């Protein structure tokens, strides 16, 4: 789900020796040495292989293992953060340790734990080898440490009396407290489950009657205390339904956010972690007091859409400058408004910007009701776009070429920054040369970061689509090998490869072998949208 251009993806037994003494050859070894189960380290991270893996599990109650590939760019970027997290956990005498396995060399371990992409992190608890827990935290040192700390100790602090609760509630800007009459109840256990996963907020739990009374409660309730907006949000536990961990997690993610979030390096994880389906954006230059004042009307409109639409302010002269090309904007366009549907990256724009809370509220509701058409970006076509062997398509010329009923059109959707696209560029150009004189075959490409199509959503780069001649606006996604000969077989066979097995990319850093479109959230080099 996509906001901005950001760089994306990159992640023998010893020979027998001998020496000659007095005319005789003395063998140093007659048999291979038995591999050691010693636990070695690199930068404070345990280095594991199939011969010491069991020992590591037996000696460390909590062991987070990174399965990596030496060539993986994401793994290389993670390495310093992983080492830093290992050092921080060691310095605080945590029982948690970090380890790594080269999954390309230790294939037995990779197969045992079904490693299909890199990096993959799994937590092994209490020596249990058969049911490791998938890592769900952030891929940075702070996120790793918090995630491990939450699993090393109690996930929620017990608040035994009203004074302890008051101190806890006032200790940070944002805290969560579960009030349960019985801490052994199923609802309380669900709360602990949520506390294990939502590691960037402190959790407390209380069952004492005086604590219930101090906060005006009489039944099981989860309370989110915050030092902004409304100050407190209550989530009563339904006696019949109980506590749904997934539902509570989403409610906390939504209500922990301010009504209007400013997009910054510090807030981007929260903005995208909330998984709110629409984002309403106010682009302003914060150095202008007049533009900054527009935030008041923007905020007044936000309350009606909490949980459905996230309102975000973007400083065009600050951290938000890099997202402007994604919206086809420049700093001079501020102030302006855009709404993004995160599922398919469609963008919506007012016919004429109006910044009152009433106008904003009306516009947002119209988009939600399906009454507004998306605004599609399109670059201008190059003058020679249709004379090159590979035709250069843009948004405004796509339909006339791709859906020409007399042509079979093979289109590469790419991103200029995508390393996988760059790797196959020469093959695509060669394909264009091979078919440039074929009347019924067109080889084309479209920069999907500068052009948008109403009915086609690109979810990875490169994406290859074949549009066969004839009526019906048909489309076939190509998923096989990316070489000229296989492309040619596909074209000569009318858009199919019936005898070809599914292609497996040799060096992808995600399971698709493609680079994901670069949303704001991939500013942190995330592999997933």
From TrEMBL:
<feature type="disulfide bond" description="Redox-active">
    <location>
        <begin position="418"/>
        <end position="421"/>
    </location>
</feature>
<dbReference type="GO" id="GO:0005788">
    <property type="term" value="C:endoplasmic reticulum lumen"/>
</dbReference>
<dbReference type="InterPro" id="IPR036249">
    <property type="entry name" value="Thioredoxin-like_sf"/>
</dbReference>
<keyword id="KW-1015">Disulfide bond</keyword>
<feature type="compositionally biased region" description="Basic and acidic residues">
    <location>
        <begin position="512"/>
        <end position="529"/>
    </location>
</feature>
<protein>
    <recommendedName>
        <fullName>protein disulfide-isomerase</fullName>
        <ecNumber>5.3.4.1</ecNumber>
    </recommendedName>
</protein>
<feature type="signal peptide">
    <location>
        <begin position="1"/>
        <end position="17"/>
    </location>
</feature>
<keyword id="KW-0676">Redox-active center</keyword>
<dbReference type="GO" id="GO:0003756">
    <property type="term" value="F:protein disulfide isomerase activity"/>
</dbReference>
<keyword id="KW-0413">Isomerase</keyword>
<keyword id="KW-0143">Chaperone</keyword>
<dbReference type="InterPro" id="IPR017937">
    <property type="entry name" value="Thioredoxin_CS"/>
</dbReference>
<dbReference type="InterPro" id="IPR013766">
    <property type="entry name" value="Thioredoxin_domain"/>
</dbReference>
<comment type="similarity">
    <text>Belongs to the protein disulfide isomerase family.</text>
</comment>
<feature type="domain" description="Thioredoxin">
    <location>
        <begin position="7"/>
        <end position="153"/>
    </location>
</feature>
<dbReference type="GO" id="GO:0006457">
    <property type="term" value="P:protein folding"/>
</dbReference>
<dbReference type="Pfam" id="PF00085">
    <property type="entry name" value="Thioredoxin"/>
</dbReference>
<dbReference type="InterPro" id="IPR005792">
    <property type="entry name" value="Prot_disulphide_isomerase"/>
</dbReference>
<dbReference type="GO" id="GO:0034976">
    <property type="term" value="P:response to endoplasmic reticulum stress"/>
</dbReference>
<feature type="region of interest" description="Disordered">
    <location>
        <begin position="491"/>
        <end position="529"/>
    </location>
</feature>
<keyword id="KW-0732">Signal</keyword>
<feature type="domain" description="Thioredoxin">
    <location>
        <begin position="353"/>
        <end position="496"/>
    </location>
</feature>
<dbReference type="Pfam" id="PF13848">
    <property type="entry name" value="Thioredoxin_6"/>
</dbReference>
<feature type="disulfide bond" description="Redox-active">
    <location>
        <begin position="72"/>
        <end position="75"/>
    </location>
</feature>
<keyword id="KW-0677">Repeat</keyword>
<keyword id="KW-0256">Endoplasmic reticulum</keyword>
């Amino acid at each position: 789900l996509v906001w901005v251009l950001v760089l994306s993806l990159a992640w023998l037994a010893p020979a027998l020796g001998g020496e000659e003494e007095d005319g005789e050859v003395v063998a140093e070894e007659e048999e291979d040495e038995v591999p050691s189960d010693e636990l070695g380290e690199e930068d404070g991270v345990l280095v594991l292989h199939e011969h010491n893996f069991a020992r590591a599990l037996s000696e460390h109650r909590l062991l987070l293992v990174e399965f990596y590939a030496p060539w993986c760019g994401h793994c290389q970027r993670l390495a310093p953060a992983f080492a830093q997290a290992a050092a921080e956990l060691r310095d605080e005498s945590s029982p948690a340790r970090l380890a790594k396995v080269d999954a390309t060399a230790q294939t037995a371990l990779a197969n045992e734990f079904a490693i299909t992409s890199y990096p993959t992190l799994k937590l092994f608890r209490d020596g249990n080898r058969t049911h490791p827990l998938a890592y769900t935290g952030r891929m940075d040192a702070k996120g790793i440490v918090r995630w491990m700390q939450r699993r090393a100790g109690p996930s929620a602090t017990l608040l035994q009396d009203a004074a302890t609760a008051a101190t806890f509630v006032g200790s940070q800007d944002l805290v969560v407290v579960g009030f349960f009459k019985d801490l052994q109840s199923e609802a309380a256990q669900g709360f602990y489950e949520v506390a294990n996963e939502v590691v960037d907020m402190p959790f407390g739990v209380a069952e004492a009657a005086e604590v219930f009374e101090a906060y005006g409660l009489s039944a099981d309730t989860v309370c989110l205390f915050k030092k902004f907006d409304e100050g407190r949000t209550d989530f009563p536990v339904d006696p019949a339904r109980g506590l749904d961990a997934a539902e509570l997690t989403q409610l906390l993610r939504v209500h922990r956010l301010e009504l209007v979030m400013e997009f910054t390096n510090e807030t981007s994880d929260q903005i995208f972690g909330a998984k709110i389906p629409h984002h309403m954006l106010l682009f302003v230059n914060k150095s202008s007091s007049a533009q900054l004042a527009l935030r008041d009307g923007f905020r007044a409109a936000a309350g009606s859409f909490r949980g459905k639409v996230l309102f975000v302010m973007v400083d065009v002269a600050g951290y938000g400058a890099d997202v402007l090309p994604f919206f086809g904007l420049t700093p001079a366009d501020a102030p302006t408004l855009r709404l993004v549907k995160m599922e398919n990256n469609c963008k919506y724009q007012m016919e004429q910007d109006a910044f009152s809370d009433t106008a904003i509220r009306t516009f947002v509701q119209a988009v939600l009701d399906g009454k507004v058409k998306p605004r599609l970006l399109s670059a201008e076509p190059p003058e020679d776009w249709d004379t090159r062997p590979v035709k250069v398509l843009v948004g405004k010329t796509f339909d006339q070429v791709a859906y020409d009923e007399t042509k079979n059109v093979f289109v590469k959707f790419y991103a200029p920054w995508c390393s996988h696209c760059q790797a196959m560029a020469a093959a695509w150009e060669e394909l264009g040369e091979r078919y440039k004189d074929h009347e019924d075959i067109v080889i084309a490409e479209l920069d999907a970061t500068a052009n948008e199509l109403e009915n086609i959503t690109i979810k990875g780069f490169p994406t290859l689509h074949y549009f066969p001649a004839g009526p019906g606006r048909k489309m076939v996604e190509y998923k096989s090998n990316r070489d000229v000969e296989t492309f040619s077989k596909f074209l000569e066979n009318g858009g199919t490869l019936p005898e070809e097995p599914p292609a497996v990319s040799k060096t992808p850093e995600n399971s698709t072998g493609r680079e994901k479109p670069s949303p704001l959230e991939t500013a942190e080099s995330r592999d997933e949208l």
